[in-house]
Amino acid sequence: MTTDVQVRGRATRSAVLRELLPLWDEARRTGGRTITQERLARIAGISPSTLRGWLSGRSVPREADRLAAVAGELARAAGRPVRSVRHWSALLEADRRHARLPRQRNDRQPPEPAVGASCPAVRRSVTVRGAEGAGRRVRSTAAVTVGGARLAVSSGPVPAGARLVNRYRSAPPAARAVVDAALDAVRLGHRPVLPAALLAASAPHYLTSRELSALRPGWVADGLAYLRKAVPGAGALLTTGRAAGSRTAGSRTGDGRPAAGRAPYGAAAARAAEALRTAGGHEVRIAEALVRQLRPEREGRTVPAGLWEGLARYAHPADRSALARSAATRGLTRIAVGLCASAAESGDPTALSIGAALLAEAGRTAEAADWYGAAADRGVPEAAVRAAELLERDGRFAQAVDWYDRAAQHGDVDAHCRGAELLGRHGEIAPALHRFEAAARAGHPTARHRAGRLLAELGRTDEALEWFERAAADGHPEAAADGARLCAAADRIDQAVAWWERAWALGTAAGAHEAARTLEAAGRIDEAAAWYERAAASGDETAWHEAAALLARHGQYGNLPWYAHIGDPQALRERAERCERAGDPDGALDWYRKAAEAGSETALFQGADLLERHGDRTRAVRWYERAAARGDVYAMRELARLLGELGRLRESADWYRSALAAGGRPVLPVPTAAAPLAPGLGRFELRQPQAPVDPAPPRAPAARAASPSGPGTPGDVPVDVPAVRPGPATLDEAVELLKEAGRFFEASLLLRSTDRPEPERLREAARMLSGATCGDRAVAWVQRLADGGDRPAVREAAEMLESRGRVDDALAWYGRAADGGDRDALLAAARMLAERRRPQHAAEWYRRAAEAGDPLAHREALMLLQEYGEAARPSVGTGAPAAAGEPGDDGR
Q1: pLDDT tens sequence across 574-626
Q2: pTM of the predicted protein model
Q3: What is the spatial distance between Cα 429 and Cα 456, in angstroms, rounded to a whole number?
Q4: Is 159 helix (H, G, I), strand (E, B) or coil?
Q5: Are 51 and 41 in contact, with CB atoms under 8 Å apart?
Q6: pLDDT tens across 397-408, in order?
Q7: Strand, coil or helix: what is 774?
Q8: Domains in the chain with CATH codes
Q9: What's the DSSP call for residue 257?
Q10: Distance between CA atoms of 248 and 262, rounded to whole angstroms?
Q11: How crowded is the C-beta side of 420, counted as CA atoms within 13 Å?
């Protein structure tokens, strides 16, 4: 609900807008896009159009609680203190007082109207007839004369609610106080029909001391008479109802004293008594249109203590429970309990439970238990259980058990179990089991299961198993699982397996993993694997990997076809996509890598795209390169684009040509500005073909004679490494090696990257060298960098040695990388040995990779066993992989 105001000058006329609008501007500057009007409207429970009217200054809020919600969110976003609802209520009241004052040119304050003065007359719309006789309805103006100044205010047809509000605004203070008391009583939970005695007792608390002293005897009757006058087209603010049968002037209250003899307070005692006699104990009804118009305005205002006292004496009995809840939410425990007591005396049994809860929160346990008992006697559901819970928390266990039994007698079957558990925890087992059995016979589904758990906690295993047996016979699946766990803890493996079988038959699929772990601990590996297979067949995604880890831990490969599902590329990609949707980029990248190792080209592209979206362009280039090396044309184009954005224009053009040759788009980007190149680089044209790779050096004659593969076949005999400069790896030497390999652009990048730390520059140089050349000097440089503590350089040195054909040296460096925690190095070494037809040594490395948890090692080991048979079986089950050649090995 809003009131239209002019946009111009709004900050000078509205105290609310003077504080709200700067807060909105500051919150937008601080919070940015997180502070949106839609979010604020949703928090405050208003429409977005209403909020836009507030924040644009076109309208002023009228509801203090919704305004406080919006302002509080803005204050938190701006880092300002949060104002209370009372603060905003005061500002709204100031705006309303300012709006009631007419604006005059001479800025003189208009005189206050006399008490009881009538409202100024307002001329309505008139019908103007022209010469043709046709009439048209036009707006008229309200001519108001205040303090000698004639004001003209444009007005149209006024709704009925607005007319009632105007009548209320212009009412004398006494009449306004009566309406305020009625409005507050209604918003606290009273019905719109209120006893006149309630209004007479509460109205003085809405007047100031000056207003009270100015009142004459009979002011309540005068106010009620004023409010009963009908407003044209809207009715009266208050209408007289029937005589109150339970609260007349001569009736007595709950404490036995006459209701009429209770004066409000102080000097107003005689006047309130006279008003009560004049009112005659009747009930009055407040207009619903007035309540709808003014209730939001009164939300958040403080309720006078006198109104609570009046409600406790005169409120309708059926409304006192709701009033008690309102009092409890405001921390008025004494008043809330009094309202509950009077409501219970009037025949509302649920009020006893409400009052008991209030007393329990106040720490008055004994009184709360008595109240719950009285509620239980009157048939209130769950009252006895609440009393038992209260006594149990207070440590009065015997009384709590009695109340649980009482609740069970009234049909609460679960109360039997709760009382039994309480008895069992205090050592009274026989009465507890008797109650559990009674609950089970009454139809409680988990009574026998809970009895078994109680006995298991007490260490009475055999008795617990008997109760679990009876619960499982009733169809309770968790009872069978608990029986299996109990047997496993007691080292009764066969009984535990039988219990797991029963749990599986009853639908407890999650117990398959526990059964497998129990069997593994007992050394029954085949049975454990069978349980994992059963779980995997039922749709458990993790069962395959658990089975793979099980076999790896015990050195078994087997030839079961269902283990091949572990390395399915599609399944690995789906797992990666699931991690990416869950916001876990590291986990997604790990699964993309596994899918790529399983043969998925799409996984490489997806991983590169993920890295680029997260800002890691360097690693994204490497992933794009791996995808492009497998023939992915789209990866070639994306790699060319990314290299161009990074300033590596020559490489970008090369990849665009590769994509074009492979069937990609025939459009090459035209760089707007070329990055400065290294000196002498201009002689290389983009159309120049790449230099051919140097063929492998011929083997020595002695080596050719010892090789069974024939002359000219490259082997894995180590090549003599030329002497290199001792000392740590330096950046200048890396630049020289890159220039020798024809990578002038990378060399220039290294020279220009002076703003980066030295370790990062050396790491980048190693990456460039490992991807550009495999010369002996480059290998030695990377090895020295690895000796200096660079862990990725160990793997890069192994890969470079493998590319040079130095298998034994590469195997040693792969082992060094694996010892440093690189699990992938184990799989890479196994693949290298398998490609060079060393099945026994490859199987040993596959076994180490499987023990490290790599699921692909199982599938590739199975393929190796199927290809070579028993010749691929490791000769030593647990020994370290050997690097020496095998009989008949050709070294490839």
Answers
A1: 778 878 888 888 888 988 888 888 777 788 888 998 999 888 988 999 998 98
A2: 0.35
A3: 12
A4: coil
A5: yes
A6: 666 666 676 666
A7: coil
A8: 2-100 (1.10.260), 162-315 (no CATH), 412-508 (1.25.40.10), 509-551 (no CATH), 569-675 (1.25.40.10), 805-892 (no CATH)
A9: S
A10: 13
A11: 28
